[in-house]
Design a protein that fits this description.
Blueprint: H1 3-27, H2 43-68, H3 81-84, H4 92-110, H5 116-131, H6 139-160
Length: 166
């Protein structure tokens, strides 16, 4: 994919995710009133929607800036545009794998096959494995990092936000 196509895709995906974040922000208003939380049950989804929109705006601005860069002359095109710009290689299969694993993560918890902690550790470890070029030697590091992240998130959500995770 060329740099121009990547920039256009960043703008398109950023716009779509901002619309999605707007829908989340709006739908969070329909959540029931809180019993114990001082901020309310709509606060967390709304905060996450705002953060997502802000990050998408940054991505879209980067895409617009890339589109404004002058086109390289015909004789001076780099062999691999992503390496020339210092970007990681593009691997579109990763997005499909992450999406499918996210669906499986939610389904496993919805079907009550696993609770949040073991499902989260498995999910995070698998994502880290994919994103690190499927490096088998680093699996113990991925599992340890995932366990710390998932268990600390579980503790924060249940003890601080009073949100019961599945």
């Amino acid at each position: 994919m060329s740099a121009r196509q990547t920039a256009k895709m960043e703008i398109f995906v950023g716009g779509a995710l901002i619309l999605f974040g707007t829908a989340i922000f709006s739908a969070a208003g329909n959540l029931p009133p809180p019993n114990f939380e001082p901020l309310g049950s709509a606060a967390l989804p709304r905060i996450l929607a705002v953060i997502m929109a802000a990050l998408c705006l940054i991505m879209m601005l980067r895409g617009v800036r890339s589109l404004r860069e002058p086109v390289t002359p015909i004789g001076g095109l780099p062999a691999n545009d992503t390496e020339e710009r210092g970007l990681p290689p593009q691997r579109p299969y990763l997005s499909a794998a992450v999406f499918l694993s996210t669906v499986c993560f939610v389904a496993v918890m919805d079907l009550k096959l696993l609770s949040f902690a073991p499902a989260g550790v498995a999910y995070m470890s698998f994502i880290l494995f994919l994103m690190n070029d499927m490096n088998v030697k680093r699996i113990p590091v991925f599992v340890a990092f995932s366990a710390v992240l998932v268990l600390s998130s579980y503790w924060v959500f249940t003890r601080f936000f009073f949100i019961d995770l599945p």
